């Protein structure tokens, strides 16, 4: 996806890292739709996916291997409301979250289903004592959600940082960020076809090496990160300003070979959390969760760490 999720894969391509290790890589852009990534992987049209929370549904099929942690969200996955709404009028609680059980009764939240937006909406409602089936979540992609919300539909909208910036500019107000209502960090996924593991494990390792080299270089040279990202986003037809990309830097970080699968972050922690969260809310089955957990394999990142020292 042509945003912070797919940026390391593209950065490695733009900087020639794949060529350096002998990989011939084609980058396929799926806009902002993780569900389309799932569909392409299911159709065996792609070998490796770099995607967000929708990855958990792909992993639940047992067809893929989770090989790396991607982008780390610092903040920016948020819910917005109208400044004159009863929800916002409650004022912030001790955690900075707006709303109450009374003002959220029969609420409608707009956003794309099977994404962090939906998970954020469920977590927000649970924060005030509501289950996932006690409110309406209207499934629209981000751009359609924005248009619908600005035309008066829905009570709240769940968005990522790009659309949060649009809402802020138009005078809407943030009622909660995922970091305020959950202790779990959002971490994007890198996963591959099981065939890749069986037939081309060395290529999987080389891809991971290039991916994390890109992550390290972006963190070390933020100006070049902004330049590469901005050019890619604009070339893909996205309505980004350079300031949008600069703002993105403060909201999204990345793992490197030194930090992935180490310290407080064990490989696949967020996917395990997402699977358990969805199971608790009747979105997947226990068998699906078993598949998610079984898909996570740190063998390949461990090998890369070892040989990359040389």
Describe the structure.
With 310 residues, the protein is an alpha+beta fold. It is 47% helix and 15% strand. A five-stranded mixed β-sheet has the order 5-4-6-3-7, sandwiched between helices. Helix 1 packs across helix 12. The longest helix has 20 residues. It is globular and about 60 Å long. The protein starts with 6 loop residues before the first helix and ends with a helix. The mean pLDDT is 94.
Query: Given the helix and strand composition, which structural class is it?
Result: alpha+beta
The best one-word shape is globular
Largest beta-sheet details = 5 strands, mixed
Identify low-pLDDT runs.
none
The CA-CA distance between the termini, in Å, is: 32 Å
- Computed Rg: 19 Å
Estimate what percentage of residues fall within beta strands: 5-15%
User: What is the count of helical runs?
Assistant: 16
Q: What average pLDDT do the residues reach?
A: 94
Largest sheet strand order: 5-4-6-3-7
Percentage of residues assigned to helices? 40-55%
- Secondary-structure element series: HHHEHEEHEHEHEHEHEHHHHEHHH
Number of DSSP E strands? 9
